Amino acid sequence: MYKFKENQLIMPEDFFLPFGGTLNRENRWVQLAQLIPWQKIEERYASTFKKATAKGTKPFSAHIAVGALILQQRQGITDRETVQQITENPYMQYFLGLEAFQERPLFHHSMMTRFRKRLKAKDINQINEWVLSSEQKQKADEKEDDPQDPKPPSGLPENQEADKETAKEPENHGKLLLDATCTPADIAYPTDVSLLDQARQKLEQIIDALYQPIQKSLKRKPRTYRNKAHKAYLAIAKQRRPGASKRRKAVGRQLRFVSRDLTIIQKLMAKSSLTLLPAAHYRLLLIISELYRQQQWMYDHRKNRIEDRIVSLSQPHVRPIVRGKAKATVEFGAKVAISLVNGDVRMEQLDWDNFNEGLTLKGSVETYLQRYGYYPEAVLADTLYRNRDNLAYCKLHHIRLSGPRLGRRTKDEQIRKMDQEIAQLDFKGRIPVEGKFGEGKRRYGLSRIYTTLRATSETVIALQFLVMNLERRLRVFLSIFYHFTFFQRIQAHFDSIRVA
Questions:
Q1: Which of 47, 161, 214, 443 has its CA 20 to 30 A from that of 381?
Q2: Under-70 pLDDT residues of the chain
C-alpha cells in the first residue's frame, strides 16, 4: 500500500556526502528540483494506487518515480544507464529527493517500465500544466506589484466601475501557435512480404508449443514447410527492386503458408488447449489472425489501404501516418498536435490514427480561454486549419487566423501589399512551433520512440514536452540568477573601493 509522504526538498548544504563537501547551489539539477511542484505530484501519484490492507513491497515515492523519468528523457539514455548515472551522481540523487548519497542502486532498471505504466500521459500533462501555471501566476503577481504599471483611473465610482468591467467582455490578447507532427516508433519499415514472413515464423513457434504436450498421441507432427517458405521469402527479399508482379506473387505464397499454419493451429486446439500457450504467444495469435485477414482482403481486392492496418507485430497499435514530406511520405507512429504560447508547449491531442489537425483548433482556443481568461488575438497555423468552420469560429470571437484572404485578389495595391506583409509576419511567427519540433526530435528523442507498449509510448511523448518546458524555465532562471550574481559582485567591488 502506498503511503502519502510530505515531500519537501532539503537544502543542498544539508545533503550528506560521505566523502566530504557540500552540493553546489548553482548546479542545474539543484536548480531544476526547485521548479517542479513535488507536493502536487505526490498527491496525484498516491491516488493511482489501490487502497489495500495487504502487506507487500514498499512502493517508491512519486519524487523518485517522476524524477527518474524526467532525468532519463533529459539525458536521452536507456533504463540501465539511468540507474547507473543515478548511482554515480550525488546531484541526481538530490534531484530524486534523497537526503544522503547512496552507493548502491536505488532500484532495478526494470522499475523504469513500472514507473511509465503507473504514470499515464494525462498525469504527465497535468504536471506540465502545473509547471506552466506556476510561472504564469508568478508573472501576474509581479505585474500587480509593479508600481510603474498602475491601473488607469476611470473616474467612476467603484460599484459602477465593477459593473462595467463585468458587463464588458475581455479583449483578446496573445498569439496561439498550432501545429502537428508524427513521432516515429522504433520499428523497421514494414512491407507486406516481411510482415507475413514474421507472422509465419511466430505461428511455427506456436505450433511447436501446442504439439509438445500431445506428441505421443499423434502419429507425426503436422508439416509446415518452413524451409520452403523461408527460401521463398529470401528469393524476393534479396532482390533490390522487385516489380509489382513479383511482389504480388510473393505475397500470395506467404499468405498460403500463413493460412496453412492457422489451419494446423485450429486442428491442434481440439487436442491441446490454448491455455498451454504463454500470454505473449496467445496475444501474437490474435494479432496474426487480424493481420492475415487484412492482407488477404488487400490481396483479393488489389488494394493497398485498409482501416486500422497493422504494420508491426510487436506494436500493433502503430499506424501509418501519411505526411507528404520530402524526406518520408509515410511515417509510422503517433500523431501529436501541440500548441505554443510564449515559448510554452502543450500537447493538445495524441492519437495513433491519422487525424485532421484542423479539427483541433476550436478545442485549443477554448482551452486557451480557460487558462488565461481571454481569447487569443491571433492563431498562427498552416493552411490545414483554414477550413470554413474554423474561419467562421475565429470571426465570431474576433480572432485573426493566419493565411490569405478568401475570394478573389483585390485590385487595391495598398491592401494587397498590406496582406503580403501580414502573411510574411505570420510565416515568421510560426517558426517557433516548428523549432519546438526540431528541438524535440534532435535533442530529446521525439524522432524515435523506443518504448513498445501503447501506454508507455504515450507517457514518453508527454514527458518530452514536459522536459522541454522545464529546460526553458531553467534557462530563464539561470540567466536571471547569473545576472543578479554578477551585479551583486560589481556592487560589492565598488563598496570595497569606497571603504578603502
A1: 443
A2: 1-8, 51-56, 135-169, 326, 405-407, 477-500
144: its cell numbers: 500587480
121 neighbors 129 (Cβ within 8 angstroms): no
**pLDDT attached to residue 84:** 96
Helices (H), ranges, 355-453: 361-372, 388-396, 413-429, 431-443
Please say whether the dihedral angle defined by the alpha carbons of residues 420, 423, 425 and 431, taken in this order, is positive or negative.
negative
* Alpha-carbon gap, residue 159 to 167, rounded angstroms: 12
- Nearest CA to 31 among 372, 482, 456, 343? 482
Residue found under cell 501506454: 455
Q: Which three cell numbers stand for residue 457?
A: 509510448
Q: What is the pLDDT of residues 98-134, one digit of tens each?
A: 999 999 999 999 999 999 999 999 999 999 999 998 7
Distance CA 211, CA 206 (A): 9
Measured in whole angstroms, the distance separating CA 404 from the mean position of its chain's CA atoms is 32
Angle between helices 62-75 and 38-46 (to 10 degrees): 110
User: Whose CA is closest to 294, among 306, 283, 304, 282?
Assistant: 306
Between CA 254 and CA 197 the distance in angstroms is: 7
Q: Using DSSP, state whether 411 is helix, strand or coil.
A: coil
Cα gap 355→349, rounded to integer Å? 10
Contact 112, 69 (CB under 8 A): yes
Rounded to 10 degrees, the C-alpha dihedral 362/366/367/371 comes to 150
Cell of 481: 540568477
Q: List the alpha helices (DSSP H) in 215-243.
A: 226-237
Locate all alpha helices (DSSP H) within 305-360, ordered by sequence: none
How would DSSP label each residue in 173-221? -SEEEEEEEEEEBS-PPP-HHHHHHHHHHHHHHHHHHHHGGGTTTSSSP
Number of other residues whose CB lies within 10 A of the CB of residue 149? 9
DSSP state of 12: G
pLDDT of residue 155: 45
Cα radius of gyration (the chain): 30
Question: What pLDDT, on a 0 to 100 scale, did the predictor assign at position 478?
Answer: 62
Q: How far apart are the first and last CA of the chain?
A: 65
The phi, psi pair for 199, rounded to 5°, reads: -60, -40
Q: What is the DSSP letter of 449?
A: B
Query: How many CB atoms neighbour CB 77 within 10 A?
Result: 15
Asked whether 229 and 254 are in contact (CB, 8 A), the reply is: yes
